[in-house]
Specification:
Elements lengths: L4 H7 L10 H12 L4 E11 L2 E10 L5 E5 L8 H7 L10 H17 L6 E4 L1 H7 L1 E7 L19 H5 L18 H15 L1
Parallel strand pairs: 3-5
Antiparallel strand pairs: 1-2, 4-5
């Protein structure tokens, strides 16, 4: 799909006959790039006998034709909840950085629902061949903390050690018992500091 020149002209503020303003040229560059239709935008100034011509050289991005999710089979994370995280819309350019951010957001959503090993990938074939952005979810097991044991702990009672960690066991309808790698790292550090 070719981006119409009028779309670009509608967002730039530099006008023929006006004095050259580098700040306006920079803002125009940002506005063109902000359309999310281009992989690259370059602003060039070409001197002429009567002034300067501003040339914006753009490289069109392939665009997203559709967005979807596959693999969220457990029903614990509804497709609607995932789709709310996806800020990439059909018609926008394929932007790998933004896609990576969405992948990470979906993984974090799953982790908050006790799927600590959930991973999200992209169907690269569908994206490159048809422009279909499909997030492929591998949910992994639904994990909850059922018990916390301190093996080998003899100096302090288990109850006192449990107060030092942030990880908590699952209690139906009261506490989810979420397993989180960052929290585990914190817990290990907190226990090491407590024992020093």
């Amino acid at each position: 799909v070719t981006v119409p020149t009028t779309l670009i002209q509608n967002v730039i503020r530099s006008r023929v006959g006006q004095p050259l303003d580098p700040i306006t040229v920079s803002e125009d560059y940002q506005a063109i790039y902000g359309l999310r239709k281009f992989a690259n935008v370059v602003a060039r100034l070409e001197p002429t006998e009567t002034g300067v011509v501003i040339v914006y050289v753009v490289t069109e991005q392939r665009t997203v034709r559709s967005v979807g999710v596959r693999g969220n089979d457990s029903g614990k994370v509804p497709t609607d909840s995932i789709m709310e995280l996806i800020e990439i819309r059909p018609g926008q350019g394929i932007d790998n950085y933004r896609i990576a951010l969405v992948r990470r957001s979906i993984e974090q959503l799953y982790q908050s629902k006790n799927f600590p090993y959930a991973r999200v990938a992209i169907d690269n074939e569908a994206l490159s061949e048809r422009g279909e952005l499909i997030f492929v979810v591998t949910e992994g097991p639904n994990v909850v903390i059922r018990n916390i044991d301190f093996v080998g702990a003899k100096s302090f009672p288990e109850g006192e050690l449990k107060k030092k960690v942030q990880s908590k066991v699952h209690i139906f309808l009261i506490r989810p018992g979420t397993l989180n790698e960052e929290t585990l790292d914190y817990d290990v550090g907190a226990l090491k500091q407590f024992y020093q």
